[in-house]
Amino acid sequence: MKSLFNIRRIPETLERAEDASRKATSERTRRTTACFLILALLLSCGCQVQAAPVPVRHAEGMVRGFLVLSNSKGVRIASGDFLQVGQGGEIKTRTVLYFKDGSLHDETAVFTQQRTFIMKSYRLVQKGPAFTDEMDVTLNRATGKYRVKVKGRKDGQEKVLDGRLDMPLDVYNGMVPIVAKNLKGAKATVHIVAFTPTPRVVELEMIPSGKERFLIGDLKKGALHYVLKPQLGMLKLPAALLGRTPPDNHVWIITAEVPAFVKFEGPLALNGPIWRIELASPVWPK
């Protein structure tokens, strides 16, 4: 009788098991849906980039400086100019480097400085064997339009990307040393547009890391060292998996009396080598 009783109970047991399975499936579905909703909410929040333009404490004017670029071994591989002029209420700043192997790095930013620094347009040209890919980038704040023309040196294939980009007010491509001069030694988070080659707005933490001594002739000077940390957010894991996590960059700024740029260290292109840009003095041939 006990065995017969158990057999009669099998349908009820199966029914309860099916009911429990349906409930578990429903719970998993509910949790999955909730996860997707949370993810969607995080993504929508991530798109609302907070912007805090840097106040103008030291207005920019006409400047010309001579630059040298060295590799990690300290060997000079390029020379160039830093050129800055005012035009129609705007400032145009340009850094151009001519490499010994014929390569070119030419970066131009146009900005205004009414109370805060606002970048208006940006242009970057990189070509020659010093770079993995040749690139010609234009970016305009007023229209939001960008154009990226990239050509692989190995395969010779050219790709053109056109579109629009929402840029926060503190996007400072080509202006990071200028921004650093106006921070008064404080930490700040601004934004840059990284071209991978698809343009992406990325946070850039500017963290003061203490003063360092250097010499100008026999004079001892001090420069504030800023560590520049790109924050990839949700792109960090994919970038790490692809081996494309950008390294920290570094900039040194004289802060006493009249702020001035002294040195930069970091890559000039995606996955590029670490290079150093410093100010140079003219050398008269004998």
- From the spread of the alpha carbons, the general shape counts as globular
- What is the makeup of the main sheet? 14 strands, antiparallel
**Discrete helix count:** 3
Give me the CATH architecture of the largest domain, please: Beta Barrel
Low-confidence stretches: 1-11, 29-49, 234-243
Q: Give me the Rg, rounded.
A: 27 Å
Helix content: 10-25%
How would you describe this structure to a colleague?
- There is one protein chain.
- The chain is built from 3 helices and 14 strands.
- It has a 14-stranded antiparallel β-sheet.
- The N and C termini lie far apart (about 115 Å).
- The protein has about 290 residues and is an alpha+beta fold.
Topology:
Elements: H1 2-47, E1 63-70, E2 76-87, E3 90-99, E4 104-114, E5 116-127, E6 133-140, E7 145-152, E8 158-164, H2 176-181, E9 188-195, E10 199-216, E11 219-231, H3 236-241, E12 249-254, E13 260-266, E14 275-280
Antiparallel strand pairs: 1-2, 1-14, 2-3, 3-4, 4-5, 5-6, 6-7, 7-8, 9-10, 10-11, 11-12, 12-13, 13-14
Jot down its keywords.
286 residues; alpha+beta; YmcC-like fold; 2 domains; 3 helices; 14 strands; 47% strand
Brief overview:
With 286 residues, this protein is α+β, with helices and mostly antiparallel strands. It has 3 helices and 14 strands. It folds into 2 domains: 1-48; 63-280, YmcC-like fold (Beta Barrel).
